[in-house]
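Board work, copied verbatim: Interferon alpha/beta receptor 2
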Amino acid sequence: MLLSQNAFIVRPLNLFLMVCISLVFGISHDLPDYTSESCTFKISLRNFRSILSWELKNHSIVATHYKLLYTIMSKPEDLKIVKNCANTTRSFCDLTDEWRSTHEAYVTSLEGFSGNTTLFNCSHNFWLDIDMSFEPPEFEIVGFTNHINVIVKFPSIVEEELQFDLSLVIEEQSEGIVKKHKPTIKGNMSGNFTYIIDKLIPNTNYCVSVYFDHNDEQAVIKSPLKCTLLQPGQESEFS
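↓ predict structure ↓
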């Protein structure tokens, strides 16, 4: 009994001495960061694809590759690896084919590596209905004498569960006046959609932005403005 007590006393003493030596001589040991707060995650609907992206808060950590795992909170299952993000060098992952339910909570784990060394492990829980942000769709504009054609580009096929009760908003700006158009889209948002902004004034510069509006109060992400000068008798180029 006396031997084991002495051994118990010696181990903390040795550890204390190692810490003191490290502090005195500036010796440091890189240990993996296992705090959930070491990463910032973002889940976005981009061109109707569910994209999870991440960023390290400590920019001095440089990972060569990442591994993403997840499980569904309501199901008693172990974490499983996302196949297309099992050894990815990108700081994002397409989860469209993995996360298909907007009513489930997804428990996510991200591991970062440098070669064979684990640098960090972050975790986060996602509810798509709450956490999803909606990026604006791609679009073009074509100007005529007194109207503008706005061509919004949707994917040819969009899964119904990824519609999220979204409303398309087309914002028109000219000489400090902003007007919002909310076109009615019949059926799913798929394929190209053309909306005409008419009764416009010739020889006037107009700018257009498009974005999605959601029933919940997520922050709106507007597209960059595209502008055109309406010239009489001819189509105008868009920029």
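The chain has two domains: 39-131, 136-230.
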